[in-house]
Amino acid sequence: MPLVFERRSSEIEQSYRRCREITKTCSKTFYFASLFLPPDKRKAIWAIYALCRTADDIADTSDSPEMRLAKLNAWQHELVAAFSGRPKQPAMVAVADTARRYDVSIRPALQLLEGARKDITVQRYDTYEELLEYCYLVASTVGLLVSPILGYEPGALEYGVALGRAMQMTNILRDVGEDARMGRIYLPAEDMRRFGYTEHKLLRGVVDAEFIALMSFQIARVRELYRSAAPGIALLSPESRYTVRLALALYGRILDRIEANGYDVFTRRAYVPLRTKAVIALATAFGRK
Q1: What is the DSSP string of 7-52?
Q2: Beta bridge partners of 236
C-alpha cells in the first residue's frame, strides 16, 4: 500500500495548507481564480501549482547552471517518489494525495521539468515555433496535470494545451524586462528582425516605435491563442468551467495592462488590481465583457 495512505489526515491537511500559501504568494491571479472551485478541487489545484512553482524557482536561482540542473534532478526524484505514493518532502504529501485521488499522470510533470531545464540551458529562441514548444513544456503541461482534477470530456485537452501556451506567452510579454535582466530573451529572434528591433536595445530597455510594433504583433498572437482555447471550456465539468473562464479573462486583462502602460515592460509591471479582478469575476459570472 502506498505510503501516502498511511499519512495522518492532519499531516495531509498541513501539506495542502503549505501549497495554498505557495500559490497565494506566488501567483495572485491563479490563486484568485482557484477560489471558485469546490474545496477538494481547489486544494488539489494548489498542490499541482506548488509542484510546478518549485521547479520554476529552482531554475531561476542565482546558483550556477550545474547546481541548478543538479537540484532539478533531485526534485525529479522527489516528484517520482510522490507520484509513487512515497512522498519525502512535506509539500509533496499533498501532491501524492492529489495524484492518488484524481489519477494524475506523472508524464506532464516530467515534461515540465524538461522546460525548467531549458530555462537554464537555452537563453534565446529563434522562431515562434520553438517558443511554442517551450510554452508547451512549461505551461501546457500544467493544464494536462490539472485536467483530471477539473474533469473533462473527450477533445478538451487540445484546448487546454492552447490555453497553457496563451498564459505562458502572456507571462513572457509581461516579464520581458525582468527576463532580460537575467540574460534571457524569449521574444523570437525572427520577429525582432522583422520589426527592426535589436537585442542590444532590448537589453537596454528601449521602448520605441519598433518595440511597440513588435509587442503589438505578439499580443495579437496571444489573443488569438485565447480565442482558440475558449471553446474547450464547454468540455470541462460544469463546476470547473467558471474558474477556467475567469482565469482566461484575468490573464487576458494583463495584455490590456501592457498596452495601457505604453508597452513599457521594463520599468512598469502589468498586473490586474484586486478590485478589477472582483469586477471581472462578476462580469464573467453574468457572461458580460
Answers
A1: S-HHHHHHHHHHHHHHHHHH-HHHHHHHTTS-HHHHHHHHHHHHHH
A2: 152
Ranges 22-31, 62-71, 113-122, 220-229: which has the least confidence? 22-31
Range(s) of the chain covered by CATH 1.10.600.10: 8-106, 122-289
Which residue in 60, 275, 281, 85 sits closest to 182, CA to CA?
Answer: 60
Model pLDDT, residue 6 = 55
Any idea which fold 8-106 has?
Farnesyl Diphosphate Synthase (1.10.600)
Assigned CATH class of 122-289: mainly alpha
CA distance 95 to 206: 43
- State CA 211 to chain mean position distance: 25
Integer Cα distance of 185 and 175 in angstroms: 10
